[in-house]
Amino acid sequence: MSLLDTRFIEYGFERKKTYDVFIKEVNDNLIYTIGFGVSHGSLGVFNLNPNVAVLYKDENDIEMKLRGIKSDTPGYVGGRIGMPVGYLMPEKTYIEWRFSKNEDVASEANKMADAIIKYGLPYLEELSDMNNLIYGLEIGKYSDLDGTMLPVFHYLNGDINRAFECIDENIKKFSVSGLEEYEVEILKKLASDNGEVYVDDNNVPEYYLEFIDNFKKMVGVHKDDSVVDK
After folding, report:
1. Mutual orientation of helices 160-174 and 206-229 as an angle, nearest 10°?
2. This model's pTM is above 0.90
3. What tens digit of pLDDT does each residue of 38-69 get?
4. How far apart are CA 109 and CA 3, in angstroms?
5. What does the alpha-carbon distance between residue 140 and residue 202 come to, in Å, rounded to a whole number?
6. CB within 8 A of 16, min separation 6: which ones?
């Protein structure tokens, strides 16, 4: 990795040796990461698949707390929102760089570093604009597979109503109800009148039910605080 250290330090990255990931602390809240998937071929041969990602510390901390997830592994390992570099290149496909102890490792490492710098770093800059990131999550340009990231970003951006709309949309994706549409609408109205979100929990994953419950409690606490402050 020493050659990559030399290449990436120029752009403000440092390597965390324990996890073989390069990070750049853009500010107190945002971290860029460059990580590598590894696969092994024949004896003395291995392949690296580089990926770039960003981590917003505040979003990650809140999301992990709401989901009841505790981990000793730093959040920057794996990042939160990112992409394998191959999909950012003109080929737009999965690409590995092959390394062998019997070949010129430096040449291949430089080619991989060139690709990361040319295609990966601009992508990280794109993700560093939170409004741009939220829009990308909304239109599906970036992935929020668990459905928990976008509501938290909207919450952090001050749009609690849209956060709950996203939760409701995710519930619809999870739920396949046997009720008639008008019956569902009545239940939604009753839930709304009580300040709640209607959940058909027959098909909603347990982790998402926990997330919804904790999200509502968090927002309720903040609402109460704002009233007291006034």
Report:
1. 160
2. no
3. 998 888 899 999 999 999 999 999 999 999 98
4. 7
5. 26
6. 22, 23, 74, 76
